[in-house]
Amino acid sequence: MGVMEKVLNQCRQPAGVFGRCIARGMNVGHSRLWDWGLGHVFVPPEASILDIGCGGGKVIRKLAGDIPGSRVWGIDYSEDMVRMSRSVNRTFIRAGRVEVNRGCVSDLPFPEDMFDLVTAFETCYFWPAMIDDLMEVRRVLKPGGTLLMTNEAYEHARFANRNSRLVKWGNINLYAPKEYRKFLSASGYSDIRVFELPSKNWISAVARKDEPPEAES
Fold this sequence. Notes:
By secondary structure, the chain is α/β, with parallel strands linked by helices. Helix content is 41%, strand content 23%. The protein has a single domain (3-208), classed as 3-Layer(aba) Sandwich (Rossmann fold). It has helices at 3-12, 16-29, 31-38, 58-66, 79-88, 90-94, 130-140, 160-170, 177-186, and strands at residues 48-52, 71-76, 98-102, 115-121, 141-151, 190-197, 202-208. A 7-stranded mixed sheet has the order 3-2-1-4-5-7-6, sandwiched between helices. Helix 7 (130-140) links the parallel strand 4 and strand 5.
């Protein structure tokens, strides 16, 4: 296994000393990506937020710190990342505003209609069944709630060679903008918007869970 393949496998499920180093690098290097992605959504004060694949936990700290009165939950498949994220967010955890646990997008440990916003940064590459997993995310969103997926690689012409290497080395799934729209539509979302920044190879997909129809009087 080559170095790049090892790095990408650690991005999938960081573990051990190497995994913690990868996560610390993401905590520093992904800050601008997070800001760009979050710039496409409105998050009200006191929102309930879930971050899927929370990794090193820095984006959770950002969400809790930037959004007054918010409560933020994080899940990650890696037990090492859960511990790291809890350490990074220990002040907010003590204040009862952050909770981090081990979990998987395919079986979220939350009730229906719980979150105003669900974020997924640099993680849907690894989801095992995109449409089923998006439906599971939709289940835990409140009616009118928003899903934000933001990644630093996607399928398009400008980065074709780089992206094909990522797929080969890391066995990850990269999607074109039309595929994000197709997946979200098939999963029952509405108000689907896709934003691209081709110069950086960044993409954000935003979608909403519909409000239930009003009962006729």
